[in-house]
Task: inverse folding
């Protein structure tokens, strides 16, 4: 339901044969708690009133924001991005970008004062993350240098470390501002 303006309100359904549904129910009973009643009611209302709530217009807005951000990301040397059809996130691959700019990225982080307010043990842990996870280093670099918040792929596990996550579920002005701030990446070299 997050795509219908109810961010974080998780609800879903499954259409499958009976055997799969029984297995999914068994797993679900041990993995998730039940969904709040008010979330179920809001979800039902949103689905029943889909047209009058102008969700097509909302989804068109998501597509426009996605396309703007997608165009920029794929224009940056070393970044490749798949164009999703049903989400409000882009998950570009930054592994080549990191390889091309590793020294600049690390230099920018270490000279920035990123560690100044951390206690000694936390500083060491932060250094280890920066050295171990390229997505974490790219995340901090983009945050420090361009003031744009993304999520490092390593948050999703070690197999996602080649990626960072951009959300375009924000207002169009925020996406446009992020694009403006990230434009210098086009000329990074």
Result:
């Amino acid at each position: 339901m997050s795509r219908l303006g109810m961010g974080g309100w998780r609800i879903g359904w499954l259409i499958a044969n009976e055997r799969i549904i029984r297995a999914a129910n068994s797993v679900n009973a041990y993995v998730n708690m039940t969904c709040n009643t008010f979330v179920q009611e809001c979800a039902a209302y949103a689905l029943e009133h889909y047209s009058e709530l102008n969700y097509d217009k909302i989804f068109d807005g998501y597509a426009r924001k996605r396309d703007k951000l997608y165009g920029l990301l794929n224009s940056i040397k070393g970044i490749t991005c798949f164009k999703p059809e049903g989400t409000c996130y882009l998950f570009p691959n930054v592994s080549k970008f990191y390889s091309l700019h590793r020294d600049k990225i690390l230099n920018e982080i270490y000279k920035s004062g990123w560690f100044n307010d951390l206690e000694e043990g936390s500083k060491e842990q932060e250094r280890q993350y920066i050295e171990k996870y390229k997505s974490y280093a790219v995340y901090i670099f983009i945050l420090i240098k361009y003031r744009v918040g993304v999520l490092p792929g390593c948050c999703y596990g070690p197999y996602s470390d080649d990626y960072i996550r951009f959300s375009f579920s924000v207002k169009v002005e925020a996406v446009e501002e992020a694009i403006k701030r990230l434009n210098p990446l086009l000329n990074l070299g």
